[in-house]
Amino acid sequence: MYIREKFGFTQKTLDLIDWSSIKDSNRQRSVKERATQSKYVYRWSFTNKRENRLDPNKTPMCPLCGKEEEDQHHVQCCKDRRATKVREELRDELEHDLEELKTHPDLVTLIIRSLQTQENQQVVVDVTGHEEEDELRDLVEEQRQIGWDKLKLGFWSSTWAVLQGKYMRRQKKRPRPTWTAKAQLAVWNYVQGNWMHRNGVAHRNSVEERRMKFREKMRKTVDDMLADVPEVGSSGRHLFEDVQKVRRMRYRQQKAWTWSVYIEIEKEKKRKHEESRLGNKLVGLLRLIVVSR
Ligand SMILES: [Zn+2]
User: Fold this and answer.
1) Ligand 1 centroid from CA 78, angstroms
2) How far is the C-alpha of 53 from the C-alpha of 51, rounded, in Å?
3) What percent of the chain has pLDDT over 70?
4) Which of 141, 151, 175, 191 is the most exposed place for a label (fewest CB within 10 A)?
């Protein structure tokens, strides 16, 4: 089984996972959403660390903070101010969604805490004296075996649903069989929200980077032209009158300026060509005169 190898799950761990909820939550997603999630969960999306492994010329560092290598975990925990602000909003939204689902408040706390865990990190809680002490102890232990960091990828122990069901019955409310699937979707919205925000920033950065390269190239072309003025005729001399002004021009103006220079260079070439052709004609004429004498 692919998942077993990818995450190093043992058969015992696989048995702990609530597969029916994964199926349910998948059913509630569009094809596109499912594709994004399975890409994220199974193949891992293109973080910079991954890109760097494929192309060593590319930076492995985070596009937001630039302080750490960017892997999947970092995307969810980056300390960049923009990222933390978005994460706070997403967490509020998640809490709100879980409350709407009438989630056991202690389960909300556990879910929220799991979002900050990375591989091999645990959520430690003291369950002694809790109303559902036994189930809670099972839940914490089972999720530890699956991995607390795997919760945000949708790998939940089946005991989550058991605990939530008990809580609902204790409240004299009918348990909702779709609770886990819906809670998983809410968590996924949080995970995906962080990822989309990261992509937005990375995209803006790469657009800016390309622009910088164009600007840099233009500056060099202009500098070269100013340092070694090409041959232009009288109609093009004005282009080189105010060198400082040309250097201060914005990208678009410089582009227009270089075009004008190219046109003048061509004009001058043509004029010279014409001149030499006329010259040759004249020489030929003279020779003719000499010969005919
Ligand atoms: Zn970062």
Assistant:
1) 4
2) 5
3) 97
4) 141
The rounded Å distance from CA 85 to ligand 1 centre is 13
Say if residues 283 and 246 touch (Cβ distance below 8 Å).
no
The string of pLDDT tens digits covering residues 30-59 is 888 888 777 777 666 788 898 898 899 999
| 198 C-alpha to ligand 1 centroid (Å) | 9
Q: Nearest to residue 149, comparing CAs of 8, 29, 262, 286?
A: 8
- Mean residue pLDDT across the chain: 90
Low-confidence ranges of the chain (pLDDT < 70): 1-2, 42-44, 292-293
User: 12 with 145: CB under 8 angstroms?
Assistant: yes
**Nearest to 10, CA basis, from 155, 159, 145:** 145
Q: Ligand 1: distance of its center to the CA of 37 in Å?
A: 21
Distance 69 CA to ligand 1 centre (A): 8
Whole-number Å distance between alpha carbons of 112 and 94:
8
> Distance from the CA of 23 to the center of ligand 1, in angstroms?
32
Burial readout 152-161 (b: 16 or more C-beta within 10 A, e: otherwise): bbbbbbbbbb
Cα 189 to chain centroid distance, Å, stands at 16
Separation of CA 199 and ligand 1 centre (Å)? 12
Domain boundaries of the chain, sorted by first residue: 2-203, 206-293
Q: Which residues pair with 69 in a beta bridge?
A: 61
For residue 26, how far is its CA from the centre of ligand 1 (angstroms)?
A: 30
